[in-house]
Amino acid sequence: MHFTPLGRAIARAYLVVYDLAMRLGTVPGALVLGYGPILLAMAAFLVKTAVFDPWLGSSGATLAIFVAFATFGPLMNTGSKIVTEIMQLRRQGAWPGDVPTLRRIEALRAWAKTRD
């Protein structure tokens, strides 16, 4: 089974969320990507008993929150890397390593647009 079309579809979905967050600016957008899902998960657990438990049951609600949180893992990783790289750029005047995350995002964008 060939998973490249599925991978491209997932990459496109992540790029949509990435682009929406980056409309806020590079640093605020990266902070939203990196730490927004954490805040949303905490808020979801605060209202879990009243909102989600009656609908999904206690275990189902917990599982749904964790699955939703886990789907944002790659974006949280990207957001925290961008913040770190920008902080290093501002302190040292150079990007860390050869290829910073922002360039990798553009390479992913180009790959996601190609057809098999």
Number-wise, the strands total: 0
Name the helix and strand elements from N-terminus to C-terminus, one letter apiece. Answer: HHHHH
Structural class, from helix and strand content?
mainly alpha
What distance lies between the first and last C-alpha atoms, to the nearest angstrom? 14 Å
Question: In one word, what is the shape?
Answer: flat
In short:
Helices cover 84% and strands 0% of the residues. The protein has helices at 4-22, 26-56, 58-71, 73-92, 101-113.
Overview of the molecule:
- It is flat, with a radius of gyration of 17 Å.
- It has 5 helices and no strands.
- It is 84% helix and 0% strand.
- The model has no long low-confidence stretch (mean pLDDT 90).
List keywords for this structure.
116 residues; mainly alpha; flat
SSE layout and pairings?
Elements: H1 4-22, H2 26-56, H3 58-71, H4 73-92, H5 101-113
